[in-house]
From TrEMBL:
It comes from the Bacteria. It is a multi-pass membrane protein. Its EC number is 2.7.13.3. Residues 260-473 form the Histidine kinase domain. Residues 200-252 form the HAMP domain. Coiled coil: none annotated. PANTHER family: SENSOR HISTIDINE KINASE CPXA. It catalyses: ATP + protein L-histidine = ADP + protein N-phospho-L-histidine. It comes from Hydrogeniiclostridium mannosilyticum. One of its GO terms (molecular function) is phosphorelay sensor kinase activity. This is histidine kinase. Keywords: ATP-binding, Cell membrane, Kinase, Membrane, Nucleotide-binding, Phosphoprotein, Transferase, Transmembrane, Transmembrane helix, Two-component regulatory system.
Amino acid sequence: MPGKKNTNINGIARRWLLTSLGVILVILVVLILVLSMTVRGSIYGNIESILRGRSVELTNVFADYGKRSSSEFNSTARNYVENFPGKENMELMVLNSNGEILITSIGFVPDDTQPMPDYYMALEDSEGYGVWTGRLTSGEKVMAVTRVIRNTTGSFVGAIRYVVSLEQADHQVVLVIGFLLCAGALVIVLVVASGLYFINSIITPIKQISAISKRIAQGDFGVRILKTKEDEIGQLCDNINEMAVELGKSEKMKNDFISSISHELRTPLTAIKGWAETMQEPGIDPDTCSRGMGIIIRESERLSGIVEELLEFSSMQSGRMTLVMNKIDLLAELEEAVYMFSERAKTEHKFLVYEETPMLPPVLGDVNRLRQVFVNIIDNALKYVNEGGTVNVAATEDGNVIHVVISDNGCGIPAEHLPNIKRKFYKANQTVRGSGIGLALADEIMKLHNGSLDIESHEHVGTAVTITIPILKQDEKEEGNNKGDA
């Protein structure tokens, strides 16, 4: 039914009930059983101790009697029973030498059908003592203690038997067990209440986190989890909120990238289509046709470069980017990249200055990839430099590495954008053409060369990009030579 709450116990609560609560329940049951047995043993032990103490009194009572004949014992025993002070709490019996009951403290006719295992135990015991706990023929539970009296020659002259009802004692044991059960039930209630409160304090935010995570997975990156506690769950909330922020930024960058790359593709396609249609018109003069063909070729090359960059980026993302490592002259590749942009710089009325270096040690690298890095960085520098601006290119040796610095006096990068400038799809200036993956690609290529790409920029001042690559080591040179000889 709609709106009906799910009352089934499942998940964390169910596991807790089956584990923690189950263990606690077993412990409580065992504890109650042990305490009940201990209390019962203690009460029964006290009763037996009292009865034993009473039987020890017989040693003094019959110190001067019962040593010559059974008749003397009978007389003394009757007197002992008649004057026994504890008649209200226990029954006292006198047995003669034949095991017959002579007299009892209750005054009724003795019942010879009652079981007396304690009497027979006392006959066999070296100290003449026997104890028995059991039920009479009436069903009453009793404890009986018998003390056998012997004369100086060791002959059996009679016995005294004490019998105490255990009904009251068992009632006390039941009361104690009931108290323990109530205490155990109270403990379980408290444990369940505190446990459910604790579990609810975990399950509620987890359900909230689950619901918010689902919304984030569906593309709602603006939603946030309300943090209520400064604990592990609170940290999880912070992490998910941060993840949502980053995903939102990535989604925005992706959308900007799609928009940017669509524009980048549309512009040359529009030019190609327009000039192709123009060249189809009848009577077009050769100069216009030549000019149009040149534009079509340049825009086609531009399209090819964009597609190539996207393919390279795809290889980088999937981890399939590979390098063909060889001993190369870095200066030659840098000069080639500068020469590629010299004509463009003149056309755009910008200055591309290359500070020539006489000679640099060789490096181990992929010629095409390193040239791609130089091209991307110089292209970026020219894009962000205004007419009349300058782009400087220089290379220097510094210890075991070579630094290639490409600097400009363009608009610079705002400080808030600088930390993210090498992230994929990120563009600090959306008005300038480009896909936003050139720097990310160049940075990845330099990492694969065990080098680095560092950017320093100040807004309205300019930007300097430092490309660092290790110099080819002597052992790498020898290895390369050996391969060449082979």
